Amino acid sequence: MQSRLLPACLTLLLSVFVSSYSAPVAAADTEVAESLEYRLIGPWRGGRVTAVTGVPGKPNLYYMGAAGGGVWRTQNAGQTWENLSDGHFKVGTIGAVAVSKSDNNVIYVGTGEAPIRGVTTSHGDGVWKSIDGGATWAHIGLPKAGQIARIEIHPTNPDIAYVGVQGQIWGGSEERGVFRTTDGGKTWDHVLKVGPETGTSDLRMDPTNPRILYAAMWHHGRKPWFIMSGGTEGGIFKSIDGGDSWTKLGGGLPEMIGKIGVDVSASNPERVYAIIEAEHGKGGLWRSDDGGKAWALIDGHRVLHSRAWYYIHIAADPVDENTVYVLNVPLMKSIDGGKSWEQLSTPHSDHHDQWINPDNPKNFINGNDGGATITFDGGKTWSSIMNQPTAQFYRAETDDKKPFRIYAGQQDNTTVAIASESLYGGIGVEDYFDVGGGESAHVAFDPANPQLIYATTINGTLTEHDRETQLTRMIIPYPEMMYGKDPKDLKYRANWNAPVEVDPHDPSVIYYGTQFVLKSDDRGRTWSQLSPDLTRNDPEKQGRNGGPLTPENVGAEFYNTIFYIAPSQHEKGVIWVGSDDGLVHLTRDDGASWQNVSPKHRGKYSEEAYINAIEISPHDPAKAYLAVQGHKLNDFAPYIYRTTDYGKRWTRIDAGLPKDQFVRVVREDPTRRGLLYAGTEGGMFVSYNDGADWKPLQLNLPPVPITDITIRHDTLVLATQGRAFWALDDLFVVRQDAEGVSAGDVAVYRPGVVEMRIGDGGAAGDSEGSNPPRGVPLYYRLGEDAAGPLTIEIIDREGRVIRTISSEESLRDKCLKANEDPRSPFELEYPSKKRGLNKWIWDQRRDGVTCIEDVDIFAGFGGPKVPPGEYRARVSVGDASAEAAFSLALDFRVSASPEEVQAWSAKLDETAALLDDVLRTLGQAREARSDIEALMADHPGDTELQAAGTAAIEALTGWDRLINQHLHQTYEDEDAWETMLAGQVRYLLDVIDYTGAPVTGGQIARLGDLEAEWVKRLAELDAIVKGQVAPINERARQLGLEHITLPGQ
Which Gene Ontology terms describe the biological processes this protein takes part in (predicted)? Predict the structure, then answer.
């Protein structure tokens, strides 16, 4: 019987993972086949949500749009979320989500988040629509919209919709303002257009009259060093004819006006609220009580309208005209029309959108920088934000530990060090922790000993975190409060995402980037300046970072700063440095001298595209790669440069990359020269030929910006801007594709060294990251679909076939299903026979034990684990076959000696042999009993035969019940009735298997007792056969009948 103690261990044989997809057999330039899959690591800790909505009459149904993570839906009021846009959308950045009131299956989504940051903000690609509740989607227009702030749908006709287009971030564009469709998105009318720098920051429809609309128009734009917000073009515009014509509202509103949020009271549509950015003393909450004719400033406190470019959202209660919410860093509520306010506590700050249920105004959903959260009691309690894998990460580093950890800073949250896999269960909250620094961190440490962890964050902050003591120290070279100051007036200009690095040759040395490279060799107690200013140092770009209305000096727009530091892993004293204004410098003498080795970049608008990443080739100290970004200069083209001579000459190597996806990072494979990986604004790409051309490596990865790539062993780790961390395991397949191993009728990839983990790792639960499948990943290519059976054989060092897996159903498979416990159903899976790349996970077990039906071990027919050592996998189809060698290594946590491991393996085999003998003999005894029953049925009048047969059947049945507990029909029955010999042996096999080496004295003693019991049971069976079954055979021979096969014969 399968033990409840170790259920996964016993079912591993049955529930192995199989994927098969069609892909061509070809040489190294073939796109990697789809059998490879990225694995979501997590964490399931929400990231920025910029759009939310609910559905009247369905209080458990809500939608959210994440800043970089796509569209999600909950059908249980926020207990769990499911993504709806993956596989459909081309981008993950969402600005607006709207559901039709008259047909809830109709959903409009505007891409391009509206709270536009200088960092972690992506541009959209227009409007998407679903007519089946999000099951399928179609792109319906406005591809050049950039950012979309709001969508309003006609309450009775879902074909009529209005889209508030905020526009492109980094340059002027004509596609701004309000667009209308009257045919469900087939055509669009540009019904409100103000200017190429003025777009719609909010749009509201009168809840009682769909012909009345209010549009908030915002004059704005960005440069890498400046936020422009405000002008005389903007303002609140009103239409009373469904958008055919618009009137700019005055009535006391400021003429010089910035970003605006607007909403209309459903209980009194003459009451219109607006939160407005304006000149000092004029910004704040404004209100009209006559439909926008006249306005009054109700409250100008800056808590309502600070950092207007990022916030400025408002939500009017649909039932009480005097209740209104303003969304800023806090969520503020007024119940007296805006005269006084209280702050509502939410799971996270920085609020961007809110939908209030018109049927119950205490029920609303809020979107903030930590995710989407739902309340049913007016904000006293909220649903969790720890169930949304939408984190935005800036960079990623990995250590050498087992399992290795990934380190990064999460936007508007803490740093994270998260395990790449969990040893038990899915990757959950217990598998990650904070390591100092903050949201925009670079993280650095000695990979071999990550006890001292250095991390940066905003305001020029730099910390050292001691993992052992849990102490975090501030080691800022010059602790000057940067907020509010002009960069040109600072001693050190530190970027929002300032770099820190540990010297790979001396982990006591750390480097920190401002406009200079700073160096410390005493853990940050003292610092020396290692370089001159390595930026363009243009004072004209170092002044106020925001205007003309609201200053913005928090660091995200600090310019002329060092953005990347790359000490050479090959040569001590060699350091590459990249700046945010397009310069690359190199020292080869530990900072004594520096050379400007910048490529002759000729971007679309400027040579100042910033150096986002520098990759020093792991194979050649003179070789390096650059990922250069020009999107902040309105240039979205991909730029990758390569040098082979320390930067004397550069070659651009981005052929084959999408022309509208800028490159964020490029890395070279540490084991395969010239195998490159590139992360772009839209996803992943690979080059097999050192950048001569590129091919997609997107596979099952959602559309999301890739902010960093790191490679550890056979795993490619991705940091994303909106979907947390992902990993591509089994990188050996990509590497061997680069070698052209896939040619031929059958090809098998070499898995390398695979570690044997004790336990099964466990499946991921809700809100947990996934582990790699336990076992040996066997990948094979087929030149064509196999017409006949395909077999996979595992061969040990002595050349013995220890496991055979077939693509065809066998009698054994039918037996396994016949023993299935209805409480734990399973599906048998088979190796794929399809053309292209296929995958099978070998569970590191020998062939299973004998299977017979009606035995209380249920699914426990799997064979024992094999010991560590050298093995081969052979895949055969007809006359064609191929092999690949690999090694199994001991679990890193096991300290047993080789002798102890061999003894453990021997006991496993001995126990499995005992179980096999027990089951085989039991099967023979049952076969004899069936033969007797058949003989008696054929000769009902033979009284001598009937009497002898009845006695023999009773004896065999009694013996059967000493071996198998016939009352066990499900696992829980073991609580009521004793487990007999077969189940006891299976249980011991599981215990020895699960525990690992060394074998314990108790296990050895128990095996001895069970073997002794089996000897006793065999003697009893022998007595039954000789005393009661053999005479029946004699009688059968006398009558000339077919004799009975006796157990053991």
Answer: xyloglucan metabolic process
